Amino acid sequence: DNPIFIGLQNYIDLFKLNQPVNITLNEAFFNTLLIFMTAVFMIHLIFDLKKVKTPRQRYLIISMSILGILSLLTINSIPYLNVISALVLVVVYTILLSLHFLDQMSSKIFLRIILFIGLWITFYSLGVPEIIRFLTLAKEQSLFIKAIWNTIYYVLLSTPITILFALLIALLLNRKLYGKTIFRTVYFIPFVTSVVAISLVWQWIFNDNGLLNYILTQIGFSKIPWLKDQNFTIPTVAIISIWKMVGYYAIIFLAGLQNIDKTYYEAAEVDGATPFQKFQFITLPLLSPTTFFIIIVAMIGAFKVFDEIFILYVGMPGPYNNSGMTMVYYVFDMFYVQQRMGRASAAAYVLFGIILLFTILQMRSSRSRIYYES
């Protein structure tokens, strides 16, 4: 009757923690960034120091490594030292990349290896980064943060596996295979089948006395509580989604494969190319527009996961502890169950922003790798 404008209060409430955690977001983010940048400079110090031509460049790499190490040793004793040190390392590394200084020291492939090793050292050798520890603690104090955590976990788990299996199936169906029309139909049937029917069948398969546990016991393994253990909630839903969507994306991949001109492969055979070389230098580049489309569509579809969870767990977000709470399920719960329209609308806009961010990153990172034959 008397509406009051509350500004961003609904968005603030989404991320409000029930109980404070023992680390701030500022410390978590910049500590992780500092650890990663220090690892990258240390790797350059080990691998590239001999290639440096001038003493000034050598002293720059050494000084940045020492700065990072000293900052790590005093990371919790001096206020804002982690922020200053992390930003300095990022700025210096960005300048070195822009001046092509690091490209001269290392090839582009080797530079990627260095960054990968830096990530490995950050996440394993130096322990779990602070930002991961912060999110792990925060998701137990905020239902919406847990929904974001579960959704991103599901997207990262299901999307790459679905696309990989779809590409492999498309490559097999594109070969001269007897009865391949039947196989195409078999792989496509799960996509057109009702989600309710699929989820009910998989509910029986994942049951304690279901088909999957029966097979595991027959080959000597113990039963797995697929539907009762919160650790298996997201992987269980991912298995269903992969099985359902892989045929659809395989058909799209197959259409892209059949649009590739056969003369490219014939010319490659004349030049003595191996099957792997033809796949690497012909199939993948010419299939890049189709791959880009599938990645975008699969990622957006994965962010909207809801039906499988709702049916598999009989209207509940997982067996317990909201282990299957996703962002769409959160919007559904706020809107239809709790009738909190403002909170549901705010969550929907946050979901839109996350999908938009991931889509823009995909488009920017893939722009130079997409080849349009026309």
Automatic annotation (TrEMBL):
The chain crosses the membrane at residues 28-47, 59-78, 84-102, 109-132, 152-173, 185-205, 239-260, 280-303, 310-332, 344-361. It is found in: Cell membrane. InterPro entries: ABC_transporter_permease, MetI-like, MetI-like_sf. One of its GO terms (biological process) is transmembrane transport. Coiled coil: none annotated. Keywords: Cell membrane, Membrane, Transmembrane, Transmembrane helix, Transport. It comes from the Bacteria. SUPFAM superfamilies: MetI-like. Gene3D superfamilies: MetI-like. Residues 148-362 form the ABC transmembrane type-1 domain. It is a multi-pass membrane protein. The keyword Transport applies. One of its GO terms (cellular component) is plasma membrane. Belongs to the binding-protein-dependent transport system permease family. This is Sugar ABC transporter permease. It comes from Petrotoga halophila DSM 16923.
